[in-house]
Amino acid sequence: MRNLRSLVVLFVLHLAVFASAQGSTSKWQTLNGSVPLVIARGGFSGLFPDSSSAAYNLALLTSVSDVVLWCDVQLTKDSVGICFPNLNLDNASDISNLYKNKEATYPVNGVPVQGWFSVDFTLQELSMVSLMQSIYSRTSQFDGNLFSILTVQDVFTQMQPPGFWLNIQHNAFYVQHGLSMRNFLLNVSKSVIIDHISSPELNFLSSIAPRFKATKTKLIFRFLGQDDIEPTTNQTYNSLLQNLTYIKTFASGILVPKTYIWPSENLFLQPCTSVVQDAHKQGLEIFAADFVNDSPLSYNYSYDPVAEIMSFIDNGNFSVDGVLSDFPITPSEAIDCFSHIGKNRTVPATPLIISYDGASGDRPSCTDVAYMKAISDGADVIDCNVQMTKDGIPFCLGSINLITGTNAAQTNYSKLATSIPEILSGNAIFSFSLTWAQIQGLSPQISNPYSEYRLYRNPAYRTAGNLISLTEFLALAKNQSSLSGVLIKIENAAYLAEKKGLDVVEEVLSSLREAGYDTQKTPKVMIESTNSSVLVAIKEKANYELVYEVDEYIRDALNATIEDIKTFASAVIVRKTSIYPDNQAFLIGVTNVVPRLKAFNLPVYARLFSNEFVSQAWDFFSDATVEINSFVTGAGVDGVITDFPRTSAQYRRNKCLGLGNKTPPYMSPVQPGSLMQVIPAQSLPPAEAPFPVLTEAEVNEAPLPAVEAETPAPNAVNTSTSPPPTKNGQPKIGACVILSHMALFFVTLLLL
Predict the structure, then answer these.
(1) Which segment of the chain is annotated as a signal peptide (predicted)?
(2) What are phi and psi of 411, to 5 degrees?
């Protein structure tokens, strides 16, 4: 009954399986030139409990049509083979609560292991045990569904997998307990089609080879860590890797951790090894393991799991014959949609790709290198969040607070920290407290918005690049033929005019005129603000594309409100959550925001798209591409604002767009609210009040105040002194405002 319930709820979880777009005519560099296999470890174990009916079903629903389901086989006391990820049952089930007195300690490869083991239980006893999510970084909200432990026959008959892979991890352990994995395999193969059998035990695999030689079942030798000891030969797996000729005598392939192919040191890729070519030369297929989306990837991949898969299957030099993943949707889209894309492929105009502080996911925010990276990565529009210095120079910086992106708090300028509630809560060192030359003298810091999750951005660029003025930003963009526009953001204009005597609007317009943007059509100029008063003031003076940003969370907007917006803006930016609201990272539905705005011919751009998996709802499977696709093809946004432009540009070029009813499931938008339906009632998060409707009162603002000269405060700190000394004790040379590439400066990306 519980299995039937799981099937029913998962039927509504995602779209029905469409015909796969698989079948590229390009030559794959696999052993036989065939398409690499997608192997779903325990099903879609990145979301649901490993080896549960839900995990297996979701893998079938969201993967390529020939996906292979992986089962880690354990033997029960009565010799029944079950699919369970670990030898110790306590790691992924509630068995310790049901059988508290049956904990045991057994030697496993010579090491004592304490826990609950299948050899001490019959299948009948295990029928009372429920599967649970064993990885703490993943949601446990589905554990209350009481997913049953499945036998090998259950998975085969209920799921009818296109491919079935049995992994035998601990044959020697079962032999010690009087159980025969060999006999089990021979018996089960009479009623179950087994496509692959893998094991890290060399003697076991070679012993069963004669019995499977005349069948279609492929035997795969699994390599563990290079320094780990293979229990039957007492050799390290690294030494066995040097003897592929022998492995070929009983196996048709090998399964290796991905680091065997692309070694990594401190999360930086090292040169790839020759293990793929070596295996292929021996006539062995080679499969790569350990692909997960929800752990730190190499910095070379910019937290994009599709990019990681691509480096194993379509790098121009080799391709593995398959990948073992907890998130099979990712290799599915990588293999079928992103591989073998020609350079001359026509790229659709939607979505418009707008950078966020440049490519600030890979480079320090708003630096010259961040903007150049955004351009080379395929951004259509690069952005400048304009801040003002004390001496009236507009420059690009993600925040008006210098503490967030520089070492200002660690210098003599720390005494300038103050609180201005009208702008920010808490103390800050504001950009208008320092001159441009002083700001250039500060040291940069790369942004790490998800450091609390121990996810850090590329430290190799921690001190790279230079902060640039608005004038330099415009000059940089003007010479880039690939750009279609620049986006200039203006905030705090009223405060700067009234309190600091700084006219940021006029400074921006003056910079645009001086750069010749007022007389040219490309790149176009887009000016963004959360303040309608700013956009109204600009509209009276210049003819640029004005973009209104709704910084509140909303679920809809009144007709009159949208009509008001149209009087001063031609496009709207909204937060992602205003489109797909969530509750504890589960999507609860879709709002009317996008269709309502587009009904009034207002393009809608959504922000902020990051690659780190913690920035995404569970529904997007820890895959930035799935999230982008859902907002573009599902919600219908016209553009994305992202700190990783390369991922969005790559998405826009994939082969699975525009296929209509032939769109494969892995490139179909998620169904918001479907995962929430699978959470049992007792585990549902408390309901939250819906977001408000955007009203005219929230949009209409008084005109900007006139610019008034700032009155110096009594005993004001003299900020025109020399910059702080450098680390070697020598004072920095104050640069002329015109010379803006003399010092390093980083800004951080604001965590939304």
Answers:
(1) 1-21
(2) -120, -175
Report pLDDT digits (tens) over 250-299: 999 999 999 999 999 999 999 999 999 999 999 999 999 999 999 999 99
Yes or no: say if 17 and 61 are a contact pair by the CB < 8 Å rule: yes
Q: Are 58 and 43 in contact (CB under 8 A)?
A: yes
Which run of H or of E encompasses 561? helix 559-566
pTM: 0.90
Comparing CA positions, the residue from 517, 370, 717 lying closest to residue 385 is: 370
What phi and psi values does residue 78 have, to the nearest 5 degrees?
Answer: -100, 25
**Pick from 25, 629, 625, 630: nearest CA to 307:** 625
CB 275 within 8 A of CB 265: no
Q: Are strands 81-83 and 68-75 parallel, antiparallel or unpaired?
A: antiparallel
> For residue 111, what are its two tokens?
């090491």
Neighbours of 541 (CB within 10 A): 10
86-137, pLDDT tens digit by residue? 999 999 999 999 999 999 999 998 899 999 999 999 999 999 999 999 999 8
In contact, 120 and 102? CB cutoff 8 Å: yes
**Separation of alpha carbons 454 and 448, rounded Å:** 9
Tokens 């955004």 sit on residue: 374
**Where are the extended beta strands (E) located within 433-563?**
485-490, 524-529, 545-550, 556-557
Mean pLDDT of the region 132-154 = 95
- HSE, CB side, 13 Å, CA atoms: give it for residue 146: 12
Cα–Cα distance between 663 and 655 in angstroms, integer? 10
CA dihedral 624, 626, 629, 633 (to 10 degrees): -150
If you ran DSSP here, which 8-state letter would residue 668 be given? S
Choose among 254, 64, 232, 233: nearest CA to 162: 64
Yes or no: say if 116 and 81 are a contact pair by the CB < 8 Å rule: no
Residue 15, CB-side half-sphere exposure with 13 Å CA sphere: 18
Report how far residue 718's alpha carbon sits from residue 721's, in angstroms, rounded to the nearest whole number.
7
Grouping H, G, I as helix, E, B as strand and the rest as coil, residue 651 is helix
Question: What token pair was written down for 497?
Answer: 């005019």
